[in-house]
Amino acid sequence: MNNGGARRMNGGGEEDDDEDYVNGDLDAWERTYTDERSWESLQEDESGLLRPIDNKALYHSQYRRRLRSLSSTATAARIQKGLIRYLYLVIDLSRAASETDFRPSRIVVIAKHVEAFIREFFDQNPLSQVGLLTIKDGVAQCLTDLGGSPESHIKALMNKLECSGDSSLQNALDLVDGYLNQIPSYGHREVLILYSALSTCDPGDIMETIQKCKKSKIRCSVIGLAAEMFICKHLCQETGGTYSVALDESHFKELILEHAPPPPAIAEFATANLIKMGFPQRAAEGSISICSCHKEAKVGAGYTCPRCKARVCELPTECCICGLTLVSSPHLARSYHHLFPIAPFDEVPPFSLNDPNHKLQRNCFGCQQSLLNPGNKPGLLVVCPKCKGYFCLDCDIYIHESLHNCPGCDSFRHSKADKE
């Protein structure tokens, strides 16, 4: 506090000294509450007064725009989506990942949102598998093999967050190509690279590696945390992926979660295949058997392959003995909604309840909460174009992102069936 007082007493101090005081002399808990752009959280209302921005309405408007764009793309052409995905997540752990432009550092932000992404990925793609790769000291290393357990991937990542050396994009692509070449033809091969560096230290011609990935039908996408790089953009253009650069932490979260839903299949590689699958039975709780995944004896839980009777720990997976794809019926049911997505709800313009031309229900059809704001005025709401049921913003997001069924349409369908 004395240093701060001395600095304030010296009115003729330079700007650099002021910046050092703001950024360097604050404790960690003080920096947590320091907002460098506090003016961005205010907006002017109709009367000219400043008030906080309604973040909920802003988030919902962004969500609605994204939903409409996806819907218009899907209706313009029947798009085939890859429901069985094999994704390698490549994380740059070079010294650039330890930069502090993302607070507290890039790698901490990456680890936080990678954990959320992995959980969201398996929630939306229950038949898919993920593997983790890291780039450090110019070498690409496989952190986890392809698998369907989010906990094992997250645990392995949290134990390997040390950053050092340079980054090598070519080594990562070569390693990924070697792994994904073994994937069956019905599987969609994807790579998502979280790149922090502004350069790549490669042992050979990376252009040849990019063409090899393109020939192997690997879709490569990159999210940059520093600045746009030509080689990353060229890689995504050649392989049919997407390239974007995160502006801040919230933007990074939005970008990485956009890769959770199944992307459109590449037209020239989108072929229909019949896939042989097995539905294993859950083993008895007290049974003792050798797990084919870990090669060790385990008591209880686990699943038994219907073809070779081998035991596996988790689903979905591929039997290590006979190679049969093992799934459960809920996995297939949860993948179904990507084939027939629910249509976006229509936004209802604000109007008065006293208007005789509009009959507005007072409660949300989903959560039964009131749709009225203080003053008996309707708030922001949406309506289903089929059943004409009104829903609040929270239910709108929940229906389209988690439930994937309209409660109003389902209830009317069941009531009609009962009458018949």
Automatic annotation (TrEMBL):
Gene3D superfamilies, alphabetized: von Willebrand factor, type A domain (3.40.50.410), Zinc/RING finger domain, C3HC4 (zinc finger) (3.30.40.10)
Statement: the UniProt record of this protein carries the keyword Nucleotide-binding: no
Top-level lineage group: Eukaryota
Subcellular location: Nucleus
Keyword line: DNA damage, DNA repair, Metal-binding, Nucleus, Transcription, Transcription regulation, Zinc, Zinc-finger
VWFA domain span: 86-225
GO CC list: transcription factor TFIIH core complex; transcription factor TFIIH holo complex
Keyword flag Lipoprotein: no
Residue ranges of the region described as Disordered: 1-23
Residue spans of biased composition, Acidic residues class: 13-22
GO MF annotation terms: zinc ion binding
GO BP annotations, alphabetical order: DNA-templated transcription; nucleotide-excision repair
Pfam family, one: Ssl1
Zinc finger (C4-type) in chain: 305-322
Family recorded in the similarity comment: Belongs to the GTF2H2 family.
Designated name of the protein: General transcription factor IIH subunit
Protein species of origin: Theobroma cacao
